[in-house]
Amino acid sequence: MPAFPDFSYKRDMLPLFLVFFLGFCYSLTIAPSLTWTHFSADAGDLISAAATGGVAHPTGYPLYLIIARGFQLLPLGDIAFRTNLLSAVCTLITAFLLYKYLVHQLNDHSLAPLISFLAALAYGLAPFVWGQALVTEVYALHGLLMMLCVYTWSLEGPKIGEWVRGLVFGIAATNHLTAVIMFPLLALQAEGKIFASTSVFFRRSLGVACGLSLYLSLPIRASFDPPINWGNASTLGGFFWLVGGQLYRSYLFSLSWANIFQRLQSFAGLLLNQYTGFGALIGIYGLISSPSRRVLIPSIWMGIFFLLFAISYNSYDSLVYLLPVWLAFAVWLAYGLQDILSLFSNRYILQISICALLFVAALFRIPSLFSSVDVSKDFQARNFVGRTVQVIPRDSLVFVDGNEQIFSLWYAQYTLHQRLDMAIIAEGLLPYKWYQESIRHNYAYLNVPAVGTLQLSDLLAANPDRPICYIMHDQPIICVSDP
Amino acid sequence: MKPSIRLTIAAVVTVLLILTSIGVWAAPSFQGTVPSIPVTGGGDCSAGPIDMGTALFTPQSASCKITVELVEDPVGSYVPAPTGRAFTGSTFKVTADPKETIVQVCYAYPPEFVNKHAKIHRLNENATPAVWVEVAGAVIGKGTICVTSAVGVFSLIGDS
Q1: What domains can be seen in chain B, in order of their start residue?
Q2: DSSP for A297-322?
């Protein structure tokens, strides 16, 4: 019988190949500028808030804004492209960490590097993950931080301090607040006793608090009166309104049972779309193949609770919260593959052939995925901005409805400094005091009446000499030059 | 658990997933980052026209009360536009006391709407099912299209 090959030298090559391969795919499909595709309607808000030292929509995303600003300083493409690049880099690091994590967890298996490579590749090529790697949104970074949480939780005690473990969880929640879903894991142990001791839990909690303190950067940013200043977090009430996501609380658990059932069915479709039927089979097989406790607990926790959240959250795009579920599934995929390959122990040529076959299958899938994820020629948002700044009359009062439209015009005005003469008014935000303060500050030339609940008609009446324009979801721009 | 049993369970679950999967992620109403606020206007008819942004409603009597409400989802709330046509402008529900109140409805009418041959339609709720009917006598000029009609549900419908 031939000797089992030593794959140890490939441990360095495989992750590099993984990153270069995924990086190549992402570089061919990344959005060259502002885009609305792949649920990135908020891109204009995030880019502009990062670029102007502002505060993005609830829950503020302080970590994202800081890192995005760093990327915006790169001398590459336009500022929107640079921010898109952050998502690509985050997804590449996630795939790399997933590989490292799986190699670490599967270390008793001789094919661990190959199995980990295939699972990380499947994650990186999952259409939803791929799509999020190409656009400006917080979810690619969220995926990376969830991976870090799982990784740090699973590391053996001496390798990482309990305080650092908590810090990672805390920092994760400063990108996307749903990371608090992972917090209960800090009360559990990866080995030994199920529950962490009081002192360990205390140290972890201290780390969480330190991580969460990054939210305090929001009041500081808000105090400089940036053009985008959601909630005006420089006040205590504004800070809690923003960070607590009060604006979206009504979206929680407000879905009917019929819709929840429909979403469960849709989740099945999405799962098959991410990993194919065969991938789903291996992943489910892996889940019930009894991975170790240090793998099973965080992956099941992450998978189940993010799935429940995505299904119960009543927004049209809540499927973006499934990204950690796809991450958990990639872990199970690795365990499933390991278990299946174990059925052919000592027949290493067959084992390697199966891995090679799966790699080829992944390669063959890429062309079909390209058309669904590719945003390299998506200029819809840029064309909208270009046309709008061209046709809107000078000194107009522009009432805008729709996330894509509002945030794209914020991007044009606050980031690109185009058409500073027009006052962009987001109708849906008019009732909020902080927004009224914002438009007073941003458009000092505008007469903003001091009324309790500011309405469109109040602004119209107070600014009778300005041309009025309306921009609504799918309708043409309507301008009334003689109001 | 034996691998064969695990494999069977995984296969059954996968088949179930394939059989039950659908493509639509349920989202009963558009709830995005910027909240949609209910847009309503109205009051005593003697107060004059009600400006709803892209449309203006002028009661033809001074002794009435009128309410104009933006309809976010005309298809879901009422019926789709006639075959080959589409909702080009916003839809408004106009109610008044007395119910017989006549109102002039004017929509902003940019060239894009002209090219789509958009016309003001009123929902005939007495028909079963309800049907959108073009309001006759439209006056087009100065970037607006206006009709005069009894109160009801109005929309600007053009070529799709």
Answers
A1: 38-159 (2.60.220)
A2: HHHHHHHHHHHHHHHH--STTGGGGG
- Please say if the pLDDT value at position B35 is more than 70: yes
Question: What is the band of A477 on the pLDDT scale with cuts at 50, 70, 90?
Answer: confident
Interface membership of B53 toward A (CB under 8 Å): yes
ipTM of the complex as predicted: 0.80
Tokens of A457: 């008609």
3-class secondary-structure state, position A124: helix
CA distance B132 to B59: 22
Using DSSP's 3-state secondary structure scheme, residue A29 falls into helix
- Residue pLDDT, tens place only, B105-150: 999 887 778 888 999 999 999 888 899 999 999 999 877 899 999 9
List the one residue out of A275, A287, A343, A352 whose CA is nearest residue A113.
A352
Is the CB of B34 less than 8 angstroms away from the CB of A428? yes
By CB atoms closer than 10 A (0-12, 13-18, 19+), residue A404 is: buried
Strand partners, B40: B69
Q: Which residue has 């495989």 as its token pair?
A: A14
pLDDT exceeds 90 at position A337:
yes
Given phi > 0 = left and psi -120 to 50 = alpha, else beta, which region is B25?
Answer: beta
Q: Which of A248, A258, A266 sits opposite B24 (nearest CB)?
A: A266
3-state secondary structure of B95: strand
**CA distance to partner chain A, nearest, from residue B100 (Å):** 27
Mean pLDDT of chain A: 92
* Contact at CB, A284 and B26, closer than 8 angstroms: no
Å between A212 CA and nearest CA of chain B: 23
DSSP reduced 3-state for B122: strand
DSSP notation for A208-248:
HHHHHGGGGHHHHHHHT--S-BGGGTTSHHHHHHHHTTGGG
Cα B88 to Cα B116: distance, rounded to the nearest angstrom: 8
CB contact, 8 Å: A409 with chain B?
no
Residue A1 has pLDDT above 60, yes or no: no
Closest CA to A87 of A152, A142, A167: A142
Write the residue in B11, B21, B113 that is nearest to A269 by C-beta: B21
pLDDT of A448 higher than 50: yes
Conformation bin of residue A324: beta by default, left when phi > 0, alpha when psi is -120 to 50: alpha
State yes or no: pLDDT of A389 exceeds 80. yes
Average pLDDT over residues A282-311: 92
Q: What is the mean pLDDT of residues A74-99?
A: 97
The rounded distance, in Å, linking the Cα atoms of A240 and A231 is 9
**Residue A93 to residues A118, A250, A375, Cα–Cα distance (Å):** 15, 34, 21
- At residue A351, does pLDDT exceed 80? yes
- Report residue A72 as tokens: 């915006």
d(CA A277, CA A15): 26
